[in-house]
Amino acid sequence: MPSADRPLTRLTGNQARIAQTLRVLGPSTRAELINATGLSRATVSAVVGELTASGLVIEPGGTAPAGPSGGRPAAVVQLDRSAGLVVGVDVGRSHLRIAVADLAHTIVAEAAERTVPGEESDAAAVLERAAAAIERLLLSCGHTLGDVIGVGFGLPAPVVNPAGQIGSPNIFPGWAGLTPTHELGARLGVPVCVENDANLGALSESLWGAGRGHQAVVYVKLGTGIGAGIVFDGQLFRGVTGTAGEIGHLSLDTNGDICRCGNRGCLELVASGAALVTALHPTRPDVTDLTDLVRLAIDDDAACRRLLADAGGHVGVALGGIVNLINPDRVLIGGELGRAGALLLDPLTASLQRSAVPAAVAALSVGPGILGERAEVLGALALVLREPERLVSPETPDIQAAG
């Protein structure tokens, strides 16, 4: 379906304003729409009535709780599924995860696939696989690409400009210089936006997870590599060139080993999943991935527990510096290493508290993310729902670069 035929693109004025607010907030009461838009009660009621009559807005029968002064619960309105769908994609070093949602923030379908180690460096293969998986998932729930108004695409790499170009060839080989917004958009024929995966995890945890209700959230994804996302008042902080949050390449030892980024003594060299598996290899060559390492640590393997404790201590030092700089009120730990729970979190928290100034520590809570392995793909959905201006049209793509 051409973009001009999608229902929301035909709206103007206050109808467009209310529809966009519902897209960002999800199911809302009329009072919430009044607060978010600044429109009068009469205008909101009239516009909601118009959108309901057109079929774009529905009142599904749900209610919001009564306020502190009592009274009847307020009726909730939301965008109908006919308004369109959004798709989220999370590309990792060992997985491809996809989710489909409607504009009322309801998950319609999800799927995940394991990938072969090294496959993530073949951009063309990943893009083809992602495009095919999106179409299969849509078909499985009775939809097509014509129903999709945008795709959010997450990668473990820095996104260095608004067009979605990938930077730093040393961090995610095979993708540097590519613009997946164009590459994937050309394959699907729908607008695409691209974001770093840790940023997406931060966004979803802030909106729907353990960071909800907090003013400044730092989400750290501890997996094969290490990355972080920062959210202030519900908005991602990306920095000037999109590299804010690259905590994995914060140097802990200026005389240390050379990191793949070209720096010395980076956090990734001592606390990433890849570093931990390598460190364990001389005594436990049978442990080849993080899943095994975390499982053995939970089962009381002394070597694995020590590695996690040491890693937590190193991450805590790095986070202490971050806390001193931006003074967040919530730090969340996600990624595969986050599944280790207290084995990682306790030494991490103790190290952070020693490294940060007391006033900052007093205002801070540290805990695990609650969205688990879905955090990044849910963040990709949130990006499309909340920041439609990030979507890049597929009208003039250059897909040759991916080959």
UniProtKB/TrEMBL annotation:
SUPFAM superfamilies: Actin-like ATPase domain, Winged helix' DNA-binding domain. Residues 11-57 form the HTH marR-type domain. PROSITE patterns: ROK. It comes from the Bacteria. Belongs to the ROK (NagC/XylR) family. This is ROK family transcriptional regulator. It comes from Fodinicola feengrottensis. The lineage of its organism: Bacteria, Bacillati, Actinomycetota, Actinomycetes, Mycobacteriales.
